[in-house]
UniProtKB/TrEMBL annotation:
This is Uma2 family endonuclease. Residues 20-175 form the Putative restriction endonuclease domain. It comes from Streptomyces luteireticuli. Keywords: Endonuclease, Hydrolase, Nuclease. Gene3D superfamilies: tt1808, chain A. One of its GO terms (molecular function) is endonuclease activity. CDD domains: DUF820-like.
Length: 188
């Protein structure tokens, strides 16, 4: 960690109220701050979370993930882990406990969601990563992580448009995307 990173962390610790509206992540050694998400983004996260059976799965938002071998502590929009796979304490959940990570693309996150986090999550051997893109009105499900470091990736990709069901075999369910709203523009 650099002196700049340490000063930034100290500033956040000293004045948390200033940073409440921001999402802050560490991605491959870089501190990334993003404005809070908009209504469509949060609505999609809620629609996904509410479909995942709570009796079997923890469905956590704003939860930091520890990625072994990476200088990264991403905060996915939704973390799904089987009950009992991790019970805490601490702010970092080991990537190995995750079953599914979900990112909803925003105007400023497209590059990170489609490329950086794809590689980071694959390096962490997260079994499934779902990218929900309200600009392109599509979902991309990535499975079968391979490789390590910056060359890590997912071997299997399934893309579907909003309105089509998305089979989430790792959760034993099918995701209904018919209620997902879209946003104008194409940040990709």
């Amino acid at each position: 960690m650099t002196a700049v990173d340490e000063r930034m962390i100290a500033l956040i610790d000293e004045h948390p109220e200033v940073f409440e509206r921001y999402k802050i992540e560490l991605l491959r050694g870089e501190i990334v701050m993003m404005a809070g998400p908009d209504w469509v983004h949060n609505d999609i996260v809620e629609l996904i979370r509410d479909q995942i059976p709570a009796a079997r799965w923890h469905r956590m938002t704003t939860q930091d993930i520890a990625i072994p071998g990476e200088d990264s502590e991403p905060q996915p929009d939704l973390l799904v882990i089987e009950r009992g796979a991790f019970e805490g304490p601490g702010r970092l959940v080991p990537a190995g406990a995750a079953t599914l990570l979900v990112e909803v693309v925003s105007k400023t996150s497209a590059l990170r969601d489609y490329h950086t986090k794809r590689s980071v999550y694959a390096a962490g051997q997260v079994p499934a990563y779902l990218i929900v893109d309200p600009f392109a009105a599509r979902c991309t499900l990535l499975t079968e992580p391979v490789g390590a470091g910056e060359v890590a990736d997912y071997a299997a990709t399934r893309t579907s448009k909003f309105g089509d069901p998305v089979a989430l075999d790792m959760l034993g369910m099918t995701l209904d995307t018919s209620g997902f709203k879209t946003l104008p523009g194409t940040p990709r």
